[in-house]
Write a structure and sequence with these properties.
By secondary structure, this protein is an all-alpha fold. The protein folds into two domains: 110 residues, no CATH class; 37 residues, no CATH class. Helix content is 58%, strand content 0%. It has seven helices and no strands. 12% of the residues are buried. The mean pLDDT is 83.
Length: 154
């Protein structure tokens, strides 16, 4: 049922949510999600549709990738996914681990660069030009003054 709802809401030709909604909720365009889904299915059998021991379909590839992306994009804890996607905490954690391992395997050569001194110096200069001194040492930027910072974070 959760797979049917996910498909009806986001992936069917006449889905409930339009492209802009999809992009806002998944932090990517629908065609990028579909390419990502295809890639992880080809590399890792974990993301292919299977049947459980009772012969019922297990979680769909769409569900697994959606859960992993939601956990990363929104910082959703694994135990909260059960309410919306019907997936247990342990299955969510397994799915996230499989997804991350697969993404690294698929894209590391193309997108993950070894940090060298020249590249680091370029990043530092770029950050300093924008007023972020010492940003490489503090990725969360909490040392920077921000006039619109919510009171609770000050």
């Amino acid at each position: 049922m959760t797979h049917a709802n996910l498909m009806h809401n986001y992936f069917d030709p006449n889905s409930v949510y339009i492209e802009e909604d999809f992009r806002r909720r998944f932090w990517m365009r629908r065609h990028v999600f579909k390419c990502l889904l295809c890639d992880v299915q080809q590399v890792n059998p974990y993301f292919r549709q299977k049947r459980d021991r009772a012969g019922h379909p297990s979680f769909s590839p769409h569900q697994k990738v959606t859960v992993a992306l939601r956990m990363m994009a929104y910082g959703s804890p694994a135990d909260s996914i059960d309410e919306t996607h019907g997936m247990s905490e342990s299955t969510c954690l397994d799915t996230l681990q499989e997804f991350c391992d697969t993404i690294i395997q698929l894209y590391k050569d193309e997108y993950l660069l070894e940090l060298n001194q020249e590249y680091l110096n370029r990043l530092i200069r770029k950050a300093e030009d924008r007023g972020f001194l010492g940003i490489i040492g503090s990725l969360d930027c909490m040392h920077c003054d921000w006039k619109n910072c919510p009171t609770g974070w000050q």
